[in-house]
Amino acid sequence: AGGDADEAWGSEGEDDGDSVSRRVLRANLDADSLASPFAASGDALRALPHAKVEADGSELVYFGMGCMWEAEAVFGAVEGVVRTQVGFAGGTTPDPTLARPGNHAQVVEVHYDPMVVTFEQLMIVFWGAHDATRRGLVSHWSLVVVVHGGQRSRAAKFLAMEQAKTRLKVTTTVLPFTTFVPAELRYQHYFLQQNTALLRQFAAWPPARFVASWRTTRINSYLAGHGTAHDLSRTIGKMGLDDAGVA
Predict the structure, then answer these.
(1) Less packed terminus of the chain by CB within 10 Å, N or C?
(2) In this structure, are strands 180-182 and 81-89 parallel, antiparallel, or unpaired?
């Protein structure tokens, strides 16, 4: 896996039918612009449908590693990740929110193209992006929520390998998927939402498109300082930004 970024994202004139990332890109390019996502209430996103199995062929995994905004920014910059969304998982408290997460962890939902990035590569990013031996807030616990058995066995193997590297207790928990509650809309792609100039580029988008777009996912990560200048130069032309947005 891995692969060149141009192969991962494709171009408007290419479509070999094989790449999930390419299909997701085309869906975003062709989507209609509707009402502004920011006219909706903060809880509007919670009413949107959420599917565990993705029709476009992308796979899902959930990571908790402290602050969900930073976790989303980390994974949104990874080639092969087609979209991200922040929320809550791992607990039983009904209707968790950022202010009152109950016994849930803050997590990022990662949709990825297995033809471009492997589950193992995502696990390496996960372990490298946080200290899994640190104990903090209940909502900041280290967590991997897997969607199928193949992921669970591989995640457990990684956990054993990480524990063997240290005398400290690795606090990471691996759980099967039960439920995911999206965070309020105002917390999705948080770094992008703090940038007024770039946010105007997406003012006509409905909430579902704003959250599910690879463009908003990737721009959010760049604004948080993730990705490289080379990554940005290869994808900026496909973002659909006007001159002000590019500047």
Answers:
(1) C
(2) antiparallel
In the block, residue with structure tokens 């696990």: 123
* pTM for this predicted structure: 0.76
Name which of 201, 203, 227 is nearest 73 in CA terms: 227
Count CB-CB contacts under 10 A for residue 74.
24
Active site residue 67: yes
- Candidate list 25, 67, 78, 144, residue with the active-site label: 67
Per-residue pLDDT of the chain (247 residues), as tens digits, is: 333 322 232 223 333 333 444 443 334 333 333 333 333 334 444 444 444 445 567 899 999 998 999 999 999 999 999 999 999 999 999 999 999 999 999 999 999 999 999 999 999 999 999 988 887 766 788 899 998 888 999 999 999 999 999 999 998 999 999 999 999 999 999 999 998 888 888 888 888 889 998 889 999 998 999 976 666 666 666 666 654 444 4
User: Residue 132: helix, strand or coil by DSSP?
Assistant: coil
